[in-house]
Amino acid sequence: MSAILSKAVQIQRNGGPEVMDLVVRDAGQPGPGEILLRHHAVGLNFIDVYQRSGLYSLPLPLQLGMEAAGVVEAVGDGVTHLQTGDRVAYACNPPGSYCERRVMPATHVCRLPDNISFDTAAAMMLKGMTVQYLLKQCQPMQGLQAGDYVLFHAAAGGVGLIACQWARALGLQLIATAGSDEKCQLALANGASHAINYRTEDFAARVQEITQGQGVKVVYDSVGKDTWEGSIACLRRFGLMVSFGNASGPVPPVSLAALAAKGLYVTRPSLFVYAHDRATTQAMADDLFAVVSSGQVRIHIDQRFALDEVRAAHEALEARRTTGSTILMV
Description:
By secondary structure, this protein is of the alpha/beta class. The chain has two domains: 5-126 and 272-329, Alpha-Beta Complex (Quinone Oxidoreductase, Chain A, domain 1), CATH 3.90.180; 139-268, Rossmann fold, CATH 3.40.50.720. It has nine helices and 16 strands. The chain has helices spanning 46-53, 118-136, 158-170, 181-189, 203-210, 228-234, 271-274, 278-293, 310-318; strands at 5-11, 20-26, 34-43, 62-63, 67-75, 87-91, 101-105, 110-111, 149-152, 173-178, 194-197, 216-221, 235-243, 265-267, 301-306, 325-329. The strands form three sheets. Strands 3, 5, 6, 7, 8, 15 and 16 form a seven-stranded mixed sheet that branches. A six-stranded parallel sheet has the order 11-10-9-12-13-14, with helices on both faces. Strands 2-1-4 form a three-stranded antiparallel sheet, with no helix packed on it. Helix 5 runs parallel beside helix 6. The longest helix is centred in the middle third of the chain and has 19 residues, at 118-136. It starts with a strand and ends with a strand. It comes from Comamonas kerstersii. InterPro entries: ADH-like_C (IPR013149), ADH-like_N (IPR013154), ER (IPR020843), GroES-like_sf (IPR011032), NAD(P)-bd_dom_sf (IPR036291), QOR-like (IPR047618), Quin_OxRdtase/zeta-crystal_CS (IPR002364). This is Quinone oxidoreductase.
């Protein structure tokens, strides 16, 4: 059988954007439980940066990328929920979406509704399913009800803009932080109740002012080191600190005694703990598809790069020059 050639982005060592190389490889044929997928668009996420840099250590050489959308070209034995020709999207392990074609496990690949484009799907699967588990599943002990305050950092990014809109749909009062006045205005335009420029304001003091000294029930923090202490200060009694990313660097060691004064809870979740099997993954994706199809959440694709421009894409993401979602065109 002739080789199925595919351009792909690989790294041989950890480092900066310069370690990514575009190579041509044989995508192969699907084995049992696998599919061959032709990508139409690929999503870009901060987890890709963590894996490229070595913050998240994975065996090398490594093909990067965690999400994409496209069409199934072949199906291996035992795959029953997909067939050749299906429009699909995914956000899952193993990495490898930065390519034209790939063979991958079918378990976490979801059928894509006809009314959602490939570009939109590639831009929203990892980010949107992350917001789904954050707002709908990763909740404080008292739960979340309409009118409750939550704090969401980096609210003008791909995850953040989805969170602003979805929180509004749930009736939550989302307090957004961002690194410029323009990004704050973008968060407000997408449903945030309040926005704080953390470069010019003390966000912890501002949160206390907004909540009349009560604090928020939950903080959703993907920034990490730079916002940790302030985030803890924003929480009310029995509040939940959700640390789900490290954009500014890893959170330093935490003193459990620092949580005692207000009885705080801390969790470090990940999408792949929540989306742990096919049924759960499909249910989370269906929830995302429904809120996007309804128009309550619109996916902002503010940057597009060709696959061979991947180094420039990573540079823009790490420099925080991006808003909304970024995709690689295949």
